[in-house]
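Is this the right way to post structure tokens for a design question? Let me know if I should format differently. Anyway, here goes:
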């Protein structure tokens, strides 16, 4: 039980680190390019990584009719 809980907590921490590292990178690139950066969503851009994830999941609008629809829809969620 401890091993499963530890794995889940470590995975969530890793996902949060990646999300906020991408936010930090965007802010630095915004400073380099003399623009404000991703501060339009939430306080100081904190919600920007989550907005990007929702946008990425909702991007595809066509469905392959001759393929397994469940796998087509579930794979981006599994990757996230």
């Amino acid at each position: 039980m401890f091993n499963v809980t530890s794995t889940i907590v470590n995975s969530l921490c890793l996902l949060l680190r990646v999300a906020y590292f991408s936010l930090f990178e965007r802010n630095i690139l915004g400073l380099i390019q003399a623009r404000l950066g991703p501060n339009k969503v939430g306080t100081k851009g904190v919600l920007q990584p989550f907005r990007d994830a929702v946008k990425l999941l909702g991007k595809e609008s066509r469905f392959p009719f001759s393929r397994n629809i469940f796998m087509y829809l579930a794979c981006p969620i599994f990757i996230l």
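Format looks fine. Someone answered above. Worth noting: The chain has one domain: 2-79. The chain has a mean pLDDT of 76.
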